């Protein structure tokens, strides 16, 4: 499977990429190498291979998620440019 310049230019347009002539030829060669490699992978017999659920046997050790107040309400409002008693004042975003 190989790609021609028109296909590469179409893909570049969709991806909003611009290449000069030398980079275009280099990208075309690289893209064809990638497609050839994928074609080689496609030819492999994977009937007896179990699908992977996880790439590693490592298990994350996470701390329990416990809610806690690290900043008081007043401390949070202290640096606000505009506030109204207990609330931040922000510009209106909906019309």
UniProtKB/TrEMBL annotation:
One GO molecular-function entry: glutaminyl-tRNA synthase (glutamine-hydrolyzing) activity
Superkingdom of origin: Bacteria
Pfam families in the cross-refs: GatC
Assigned EC number: 6.3.5.-
Gene Ontology terms: biological process: glutaminyl-tRNAGln biosynthesis via transamidation; regulation of translational fidelity; translation
Substrates-to-products reaction catalysed: L-glutamyl-tRNA(Gln) + L-glutamine + ATP + H2O = L-glutaminyl-tRNA(Gln) + L-glutamate + ADP + phosphate + H(+); L-aspartyl-tRNA(Asn) + L-glutamine + ATP + H2O = L-asparaginyl-tRNA(Asn) + L-glutamate + ADP + phosphate + 2 H(+)
Subunit and interaction comment: Heterotrimer of A, B and C subunits.
Protein's name in the database: Aspartyl/glutamyl-tRNA(Asn/Gln) amidotransferase subunit C
